Amino acid sequence: MSIFTPTNQIRLTNVAVVRMKRAGKRFEIACYKNKVVGWRSGVEKDLDEVLQTHSVFVNVSKGQVAKKEDLISAFGTDDQTEICKQILTKGEVQVSDKERHTQLEQMFRDIATLVADKCVNPETKRPYTVILIERAMKDIHYSVKPNKSTKQQALEVIKQLKEKMKIERAHMRLRFILPVNEGKKLKEKLKPLIKVIESEDYGQQLDIVCLIDPGCFREIDELVKKETKGKGSLEVLSLKDVEEGDEKLE
Amino acid sequence: MVLNSLDKMIQLQKNTANIRNICVLAHVDHGEEEYLINLIDSPGHVDFSSEVSTAIRICDGCIIVVDAVEGVCPQTQAVLRQAWLENIRPVLVINKIDRLIVELKFTPQEAYSHLKNILEQINALTGTLFTSKVLEERAERETESQVNPNSEQGEQVYDWSTGLEDTDDSHLYFSPDQGNVVFTSAIDGWGFGIEHFAKIYSQKTGIKKEVLLKTLWGDYYINMKAKKIMKVDQAKGKKPLFVQLILENIWSLYDAVLKKDKEKIDKIVTSLGLKIGAREARHSDPKVQINAICSQWLPISQAVLAMVCQKLPSPLDITAERVEKLMCAGSQTFDSLPPETQALKAAFMKCGSEDTAPVIIFVSKMFAVDAKALPQNKQRPLTQEEIAERHEHARRRHAEKLAAAQGQAPLEPTQDRSDLETSPQGEELKGDEQEVESETPKPVPQEGNDREPFIAFARVFSGVARRGKKIFVLGPKYSPLEFLQRVPLGFSAPLDDLPPVPHMACCTLENLYLLMGRELEDLEKVPPGNVLGIGGLQDFVLKSATLSTLPSCPPFIPLNFEATPIVRVAVEPKHPSEMPQLVRGMKLLNQADPCVQILIQETGEHVLVTAGEVHLQRCLDDLKERFAKIQISVSEPIIPFRETITKPPKVDMVNEEIGKQQKVAVIHQTKEDHRIPEGIQVYSGGLITMTTPNKLATLSVRAMPLPEEVTQILEENSDVIRSMEQLISSLNEDKNTQMIHQKTQEKIWEFKGKLEQHLTGRKWRNTVDQIWSFGPRKCGPNILVNKSKDFQNSVWTGPDGKASKEASRYRDLGNSIVSGFQLATLSGPMCEEPLMGVCFVLEKWDLSKFEDQTASDLVKEGQGEGETCSGRDEHQDLQGGCSEPFEKRTSQKGESSLTDCYGPFSGQLIATMKEACRYALQVKPQRLMAAMYTCDIMATSDVLGRVYAVLSKREGRVLQEEMKEGTDMFIIKAVLPVAESFGFADEIRKRTSGLASPQLIFSHWEIIPSDPFWVPTTEEEYLHFGEKADSENQARKYMNAVRKRKGLYVEEKIVEHAEKQRTLSKNK
Fold first, then answer.
1. Which of A209, A211, A238 is nearest to B823 (CA)?
2. pLDDT tens figures, A4-15
3. Which end of chain B has fewer CB atoms < 10 Å from its terminal CB, N or C?
């Protein structure tokens, strides 16, 4: 019989519970906080650094240990350590504060790096630094969504940043080689998608070098393929058009 | 620098080094003649030695001030060296003699020997400068004579003397009896040269002045009885004359004043024949009394300026040697200059002020001033009548106001005035006048708001600078030879019609100013030999330039900077939208500061390179408050790395041969396996085979390290590679019209030959002929080699001029593979940094299925709508997963063959190639490459040890060390990783008390030998490093830092010890 008085109540403070349902039963194990994600990613290799105890519970906070029969019926073994490992890799985890924090921070950085990589200052055609982008992201109070891919979010960030500062996606340089008769028609269709036409050459074939927004590459690609029935070709000259090399200011 | 507000002044005063050149003009009556002295003050801190350089160039002489207590400091050496290099004559002032008396409590005898010591040190320095120069000249002569041995006429007598004995150097040294040394105490207002006392004592004692001049300094004593001056015999304890006649008198004066001995003071004062004001005499602070007495007895200004007038040369005395040195840059000799230029020497020497004399002006620096300080923007002084009128007006207004305000509370006049008082004079006036001031309309149109006016700090070397004169601006790289070649002799068209010559511009002298400290005075013309300010040149002159009316004038040699910029930081605006302001501000800063460099790097960083930490601070302050006027943040610049692979090591970390030891079973031995996902076959020798997601093509790739020399060749020839690339692309488009330039062709073959020479051995057989592409960006230090059988499209086909045009679809696929390779080389697997020195070999490419498919497509096309069964089968086999009905697709064949659920086929090929390259890298031992600086350090022998300590602490490696001939300076050559260089300059200066000055230049990339993924595997390694191997792994540290910065996944535990976490939540 347990008497629950504040003095002999022990708080579970450094505990993260990992749960798993198997064979209609719920099983739990008691782990240390901020360790389970590390175990799953393979950084932490010492099981004792992850598990508080090797025993499997039905309810960790009440201290109810799972029965042997239940374990055998659910996992086919009664080796507690083995079962713990299974639960650790497959069970549902409570993500602890620091784990969440580092994950979000990592994503934030990743997004900033992606944005910095994709974008340029349209005036100088030079990229912005990651630190600057990070600061700009903080300025617009961008909050990272953990369940969305960083690439998607980066595109979103670019859209939002455009309102605040001079930033633009680095252009892609393409070359079209089109048959002349279809080329003229196609050119009209391509026009709204092209940012800058750098050179045009009507010879035996129509040869256009231009800059486009990388976002509409697919669209252009499909258009060219469809309209010319595979005769026209499209070549990526450079993925992003940025100034190269160091420049000394004079 | 003009200080426009008190706040700023205070802020600048906090940092003593923040004081800039101030140019003051002074009339001095010395004897009968009047002199005009241009005085340029320059800061003493090492970081600002560039200011010294700019000042020294336009001077004829300099005053070197040495602290009597601290003696010769590193900066003294630097300044002496600079004066020496510019060939200008120095005089010496030993200041703060009072500290010897008051603080150190030296006896006169001690003080004398102390002073003598300082002088000797300085002379020793001058001596080393002199000997090194003589030795240099001698070495030059020797090499010359070796070049043309005939000129020696067979004289076989070898000259063993160093040449030192023959060269007279006595005039170089500082000695009081030469009159080029003055002893002063500026704070107490006194100073004297020997001459002053010689005059006094020759009157008193009747000894000839000339004799006294010679003997007052040195070990001589006076025999009072015999009235004779004798050599000192130390044993007899006789005091030298200097002590007895000069120092003791000063000492006794200080003694009397400090002890407040009224009688004695009076006695001294009367005996000196001085009159001390009652107020000073009664003052309780002894400093005031000393000041009052001494400034009358031995006025400092007279002592110093007398020396300046007598000993320093006038512009007329410019030495031929200096002129020649100024005119010929680098290794040029004066004789090699064109005759027109040589003729200018005479103009220099003559310094003529006739109108026919050519005008030659040197601009040594540009400085920004407040627009308000310009004379044309300043209010002109009011005439008497105007003042009277305004007074009247104001008085009336005042009366009205008083009448209106009666009964009301007295008005607060300052309040409404503060809005009105925008007049630039801002001086404290009183009463009504102040209101008058507020009435005056704004005299300046606010043009200075958007632009800081720059004034060129310059000197006229010859001719007369007149306002409105047309003049050539010659940049530092201008060559008169080039001009003379382009422009026919006797060319007399107006100046504006000249053909463009590089580094030359033509402009009109708009505003000429007299620099009076912070004041600028307008001038109509400036005669030769004078220092002046020139306005309106900022668009023509960046930092320094030569102005001349004759285009044959050579640009002066570039300024000699003691300190080269070395401290690098990245600068960014606090608010990202303020980028344009920052860039503009940095441009202005670049113009205003002679010793700052600004780089915009490929990463988009703006890097500021300054001479030192103090200089950096000043630059940042200037940027924040003057030039950009925005908040900025400063950070360590991003350090680039490269990724590469090496040959598998033969020995492990404890130098045991690999393979002999028993591998210990480790928990994380499976590391290799989970880096490579399933579905990719790894064969022996690191051959990776990968198939595209739609299973149409299979690629086999292997990665190999390139020999170091090859990487180097690739680096050096990136421009050759680029031109090859252009050739190929133009050939592919049938544009054979573009002829290959003979020279480029030669270069390309030379490059190929070099590669072949280094890529020898079985492994590399035929490799050079099979090179397909270079990467990243098609010109980098990585190679893609195609070893498949049907490959015939190597990079060399372009320059061969016989490029075989492949079927266009084949070319497309090839392009995709090359793009994949480009992407892979652009960011490696370790930390997404570019690759270097890696060779990817495409061993096999199986595109047969794809070809079959497209072939069948073509067949279908030929047959119109009726397809063959085989074609249908094949399609369904290959694209079974595709949901689109086949019939629909046939109507858009072009698309159907290339598009499926994985996106366009070319995209898949790119991705597959990229991944294959990455995995091929990962199965090899990967290494990081660090950027390295070469570091040249000049240090004296006594701080050599500390230099080494700093270097080794920062992972530097000393390559060589040698002694500079004729000096005690050592020159150390070392390499240092860029990653460790932040704060290096500062640390080395601190540790060596400024006696060593480093210089960093980027040199090369170097492999960091340690493996970033290394974990101990053998018994010995365990014993040595422990299970976790937590001893520092440099490469891993760098890699993780980069990954963290980029937001990549880092293999690091969030919490090291689970049990040691804080167990309570925060709010309990």
1. A238
2. 566 655 666 788
3. C
Q: What is the pLDDT of residue A200?
A: 78
More confident residue, B101 or B7: B101
Contacts of A106 in chain B (CB under 8 A): 1047-1049
DSSP class of A121: B
pLDDT above 70: percentage of residues in chain B: 69
Q: Please answer whether residues B556 and B327 qualify as being in contact, where contact means their C-beta atoms are separated by less than 8 angstroms.
A: yes
- Among A13, A35, A177, the residue with its CB nearest the CB of B1064 is A13
Query: How far apart are alpha carbons B500 and B520 in whole angstroms?
Result: 34
CB contact under 8 A, A229 and B574: no
Average pLDDT of B1023-1051?
A: 76
Say yes or no to pLDDT of B567 above 50. Answer: yes
Interface of B with A in 527-546 (CB under 8 A): 542
The pLDDT of residue B415 is: 35
Per-residue pLDDT at B152: 44
Q: For position A26, what pLDDT does the model report?
A: 92
Sequence-distant (6+) residues with CB within 8 A of B963 are B969, B970, B971
CATH of domain A97-168: 1.10.10.900
Does residue B803 register a pLDDT over 90? Answer: no
ipTM computed for the complex: 0.79
Tell me the shortest Cα–Cα distance from B987 to chain A, in angstroms.
27
Task: Give the helix ranges, DSSP H, for B670-707.
Answer: 671-675
Q: pLDDT per residue over B652-679, tens digit each?
A: 666 666 655 555 444 444 444 445 666 6
Question: Which of B604, B815, B1064 is facing A235, going by the closest CB pair?
Answer: B815
Mean of the per-residue pLDDT values for chain B? 72
Chain A residues in contact with B638 by the CB 8 A cut-off are: 129
Is there a contact between B894 and A43 if contact means CB atoms under 8 Å apart?
no
Which of B590, B892, B1047 lies closest to A112 in CB terms? B1047
Q: So what's the pLDDT on residue A157?
A: 92
Diameter over CA atoms, chain B: 139
Beta strand segments in B68-172, E: 89-95
Q: What is the pLDDT of residue B498?
A: 56
**Which residues have a Cβ under 8 Å from the Cβ of B298 and sit 6 or more positions away?**
B190, B191, B192, B196
Query: Who wins on pLDDT, B800 or B945?
Result: B945
Q: Which of B587, B823, B1054 sits opposite A102 (nearest CB)?
A: B1054
Cβ-Cβ contacts under 8 Å, B808 against chain A: 233
User: Would you call B812 and A111 a contact, using CB atoms and an 8 Å cutoff?
Assistant: no
Residue pLDDT, tens place only, B957-985: 899 888 876 677 788 899 988 888 888 88
For residue A241, give how far its alpha carbon lies from the nearest alpha carbon of chain B (Å).
11
Q: Give the residue range(s) of CATH 3.30.70.240 domains in chain A.
A: 171-238
CB under 8 Å, gap of 24 or more: what pairs does B267-275 form? B268/B293, B269/B293, B272/B296, B272/B297
Under an 8 A CB cutoff, do A98 and B577 touch? no
Chain A residues with CB inside 8 Å of B674's CB? Answer: 42
- Contact residues, chain A, for B668 at CB < 8 Å: 42, 45
List the beta bridge partners of residue A44.
none
Of the two residues B153 and B763, the one the predictor is more confident about is B763
Q: How far apart are CA B1043 and CA A109, in angstroms?
A: 10
Distance from CA of A120 to the nearest CA of B (A): 9
| Topology of the domain comprising A171-238 | Alpha-Beta Plaits (3.30.70)
Residues 822 to 851 of B: which have CB under 8 A from any A CB? 823
B965 against A144, higher pLDDT: A144
DSSP three-state, residue B200: helix
Q: Where in chain A is the domain with CATH 1.10.10.900?
A: 97-168
Which residue intervals of chain A bear CATH 3.30.1250.10?
16-94
Contact (CB<8Å) B635/A13: no
According to CATH, the topology of domain A16-94 is 3.30.1250
Determine whether the interchain pair B1046/A130 forms a contact, defined as Cβ–Cβ distance below 8 Å.
yes
